[in-house]
Amino acid sequence: MENMHNMAERYGRLWAIVIALVIATLAATLLYNMHTEYEKLLIRQERASTRMELETVSVGLNNALNSRFSLLLGLKAFAEAAIKQGNAELEFSRSFEAFAAGLYGSAAGIRNFIIAPGGVNKYVFPLDRNRKALGHNLLTDTRPQVRKDVQRTIENGRMALSGPYELRQGGLGIVCRIAVYEDGKFWGLVSMVLDVPPVLSEAGIPEYSRKKLLAIKDASGKLFYGEGKVYGESPETQRIALPEGYWTLAVAPNDGWGGESRLSLLVFDALAWIVVILIAVSSSLLFFRHSRLRRAVKSRTAELYEANLKLVEENKRRVQSEGELCRSEFRFRSFFESSPFSLWEENMSGLVPIFERLQAKGIDDFEFYFRESRSDLQECLAAIKVIDVNPASVLLFKAERKEDLLQGIADLFCDTSWDLFALEVAALASGKQHFHGEGKVLDLTGVEMDVLLYAEVIPGNEGPLDKILITIVDITEKRKLEEIMVQTEKMMSVGGLAAGMAHEINNPLAGILQGVQNVIRRLSPDLKANVAAAESEGISFAGLRGYLERRDIPRELESIRIAGERAAQVVRNMLDFSRKSVSAFSTCDINSLLNTALEIASSDYDLKKNYDFKSIKIVREFDPDASNSRCISSEMEQVFLNLFKNAAHAMEKRGGEGEAVLTLRTRKERRKVVVEVEDNGIGMPDKIRKRIFDPFFTTKPPGAGTGLGLSVSYFIITKNHGGSFTVESQPGQGTCFRITIPQ
Q1: Quick one: 339-474 is in which CATH superfamily?
Q2: Enclosing H/E stretch for 523
Q3: If pLDDT is split at 50, 70 and 90, which confidence band does 605 have?
Q4: At what angle do helices 553-578 and 541-550 cross, to 10 degrees?
Q5: pLDDT tens digits, 336-385
Q6: Containing H/E element for 624?
Q7: Element (DSSP H or E) covering residue 381
């Protein structure tokens, strides 16, 4: 029995070893398969991660290229608008230089902008480094490919791209051209030369290529960036669509696919072998145990395997989610930082408790409430936190750095800003996700400007209001342009009326003046016929004269004559207002005209009688370069004299407080002459400033002014001389009239 027991024990051990070997063999086979599948999974994950990175780089490169292509389309739109307006060559050149300068500074890597009427390069910016391009005829270029590209854009009207290739001036670049048409016929070309390296740098490609192998080919398969060996590594590729053709980006790891996952694979193999060894040893030791225990071990092993697969899948989903989140954040940040408009990211979660408190009080008309309750509105302002602002905001509000705006928005408020803020807060309190309105704000230097404000709750933040995107657009210049347009319309409409009234008044007025002059002559003792006629009637002429003087008849007649001449002057002003002057233009010295007008003002009876013009301190700040200008001297003197009279009137109203100072300035700006007439009088509010050029509008007392002086002056400057006439004024700080005319 003992021998049989020993034999059974030996056979049992043998069977345990055999079973352990069989299990180990099966486990090794399973391990090999798992190793292979796991390696493939890691490579797929690595490829997926690389694809997401490549997509991010592609989006950046696509945005960098499209932003520059849009500049060329903007230049085309400029050329088409200038053609339609029929701008003269000189005006076209000035407009092109100003417009191209704005485009040139908006993006890096732009070598030049060119407009080529009829295919001949005529307008180039910047000119200093590109003078050789002037006069070059692209239609007869010696390079066949250039002629082919030019002909293609002329035929299809789309943008034609040349390159990338080594430019004549050195460096890798692209030449973009697009045809311009006038009434359906070819007019010329606009072109732009781009340096490729700055565009690639903006997209982050050089930095990314230091981490992985990266190459770029054009549509013809020509490699122009990176190393060709990447194509031997089965790379991930991504196409960049261009206005004509495409680029292909290829990316592969420096160590080949699977190189970054070797450590994970080694850890997996080590753990798997440990599991195999444990299973084999456990199987040999537990061979004689109950079958149920063996089934439990087998079941547990299967559960571990399933758990491992689930963990792998969960890891895959997490990587995909992180990639999508990164792409979304990248797109938002790219838009936020590159937007030309002022963008603010604000946290308004502090407003929610205020809204809930007001709703509990039964308030439902938030717009009316916030307009009337300034204290609650100030509490709302203090609860708003600025998270971030873009570079355009720093420029718009004249901040030295971004942190100056992150401290809060209270410094940007003026008295009229509260109305716009009340409407914005009321919209959010009512549950609206969008708001827009117009109002006034201050920049950090205290200058007031008109703005258009958009507020939008970013999706996902509707309840807590912890992420609000604010867009601010400066419309100050738009408002000024609207005022000028309204003023011009008023001038045109009143012109015809003024002409008709002047002609109708002129005839009876001439009869009145002639009759009064004849009566005065008939009563003059200097005419012997008057004395003889009185004596023939038995009347003493001296007695008649004494009677008339005792009854103030001569003074009344003189008053009628003065009033008639004043009315005649009004008629002449109305006629000047209603018709364009036919006086000849000549080259005049603006500084001399100002001095001449000052001499006339100093000797003018009305000015001496009412305002003591000679007591005013005159400050001359004349620019010698502004002396020569094409103008009608008599009309300009009339304009200056009107301004001097108004300035004297404004300074007389100061009541003798301080010295009255009249400052005259001239300067040359490009091809224009600017004249400024500034006084330190009482100034004027906005409602008067907006009407100051209206015909018959005057702030002087009845009988002291006709309201036509500035209207006629405005007409002389804008219509007769093709210039501009503006006014700036602050109550209590004086007024400055600015005249700009072509030189």
Answers
A1: PAS domain (3.30.450.20)
A2: none
A3: very low
A4: 70
A5: 888 888 998 888 888 888 888 988 888 888 888 888 888 888 889 888 99
A6: none
A7: helix 374-383
Query: 538 versus 570: which is more confidently predicted?
Result: 538
Calpha distance 131→134 (Å, rounded): 6
Per-residue pLDDT averaged across 27-43, rounded? 78
Distance in angstroms (rounded) separating the CA atoms of residues 722 and 629: 13
DSSP 289: S
Please check whether residue 417 is in contact with residue 363, taking contact to mean a CB–CB distance below 8 angstroms.
no
Separation CA 370–CA 347 (nearest Å): 20
Which of 431, 440, 247 has its CA nearest to residue 352? 431
> CATH second-level architecture of 586-742?
2-Layer Sandwich (3.30)
Taking domain 87-201, whether its CATH number is 3.40.50.300 is answered by no
Instruction: For 290-312, write each residue's pLDDT tens digit.
Output: 556 666 777 788 888 888 888 88
Domains of the chain, by residue range, sit at 2-47+281-334, 87-201, 204-252, 339-474, 482-578, 586-742
Strands 734-742 and 724-730: antiparallel
The CA distance from 560 to 481, in Å, is 44
b/e burial code for range 230-249 (CB count within 10 A of at least 16 → b): bbebebbbbebebbbeebbb
Q: Does this chain's domain 339-474 share its CATH topology with 586-742?
A: no
Question: Considering only CA atoms, which of 102, 222, 219 is closest in space to residue 161?
Answer: 219
Lowest mean pLDDT: which of 391-400, 578-587, 677-686? 578-587
pTM for the full predicted model: 0.37
Residue with tokens 């689930």: 310
pLDDT tens digit string along 272-281? 778 777 776 7
pLDDT score, position 63:
92
**Residue written as token pair 């292979």:** 36
Cβ(491)–Cβ(711) under 8 Å?
Answer: yes
At which residue do the structure tokens 């003023």 appear?
487
In the block, tokens 């009321």 appear at 426
Return d(Cα 194, Cα 67) in angstroms, integer: 12
